[in-house]
Amino acid sequence: MTIGELSRKTGLSASAIRYYEKERLIPTAPRRSGRRVFDGRALEQIAVVRLARDAGFTLAEIRQLVSEFRNNRWRPLAERKLIEVRDAALRLRQMTRILERLIECQCADVEFCGRAIRHSCRERIR
Amino acid sequence: MTIGELSRKTGLSASAIRYYEKERLIPTAPRRSGRRVFDGRALEQIAVVRLARDAGFTLAEIRQLVSEFRNNRWRPLAERKLIEVRDAALRLRQMTRILERLIECQCADVEFCGRAIRHSCRERIR
DNA sequence: GTAGGAGTTAAAGTGCACTCGAGGTCAAGC
DNA sequence: GCTTGACCTCGAGTGCACTTTAACTCCTAC
Questions:
Q1: Which residues in chain B, range 19-58, keep a C-beta under 7 Å from any nucleic strand D atom?
Q2: Which of A38, B37, B84, B91 is 20 to 30 A from A55 in CA distance terms?
Q3: DSSP H helix total and E strand total for chain B
């Protein structure tokens, strides 16, 4: 598979794939006359990176996760991240409820909605 | 309330608060001899911004949301964002499950876990 | 044999969301 | 009246995650 095909299949730009390789998020692909040749594993590796990134891992953390996967040092990293991810999911559910309320609400008094929303938000910081 | 107190109460740095004001995410605070004076509403306004930011709105989108709140143009913005937020929440739940599986798994064969995880990730792109 | 298209590298540039630093102001307490 | 500390503005700097650019190579098709 060329970098172009991999790019089309993953939706990730070719330059982003090169960048991921350079940053050691995915293994260095073997070259055929200077060009990268990928196999099916690259799809999985990129999918792992994207999922982790979507879940809020930084690329530095993902590099750690993938490089420390073979020894057992990834465990504390994963545990810390699980807490963060659960918290992020909670905040997203709150935001979902607020958006749903906001959208479904037909009240003419937009100021009332506003107060209700500000109140929901404020609960979070006190 | 001074900017320092507001900073302590919200956990947001004073420079970030000034930045939010400059970017019109929160209203321009009145000055007393050159210094900003905040009241309780500032707590709510900052909480709204932080919640929206946590939910994945960019500051530009938040500015739109807060500035268009009084007319009814915020509605399509909120609807589009609801879809994104639901999707983000789904991805976070996937990541939570993967992390939980990873952490709870006691198997010695880390390669097996690895394959299972790569498989879960790969499902997402095919 | 040459044009085109896809690939290569290294380095510089971009956008976001702040953060920092310099140089200055202001009120309170000694 | 002077020091201290918290505040002010403005502009530059930072870190992340890429993207773009420049100059080049390689294969295919005409």
A1: 31, 34-36
A2: A38
A3: 6, 2
Q: Which residues, at least 6 apart from A80, have a Cβ–Cβ distance to it below 8 Å?
A: none
Phi, psi dihedrals of residue B13, rounded to the nearest 5° = -70, 155
Q: Are A110 and B70 in contact (CB under 8 A)?
A: yes
Q: Which residues contact B76 (CB under 8 A, 6 or more apart)?
A: none
Element (H, E) at A32: strand A31-32
* Strands, E assignment, chain B: 31-32, 35-36
The residue in chain A having the minimum alpha-carbon distance to the alpha carbon of residue B71 is: A110
CB B91 within 8 A of CB A55: yes
End-to-end CA distance of chain B: 54
pLDDT in tens, B51-97: 888 877 899 989 988 887 766 677 787 888 888 888 888 888 888 88
Q: How far apart are CA A17 and CA A6, in angstroms?
A: 9
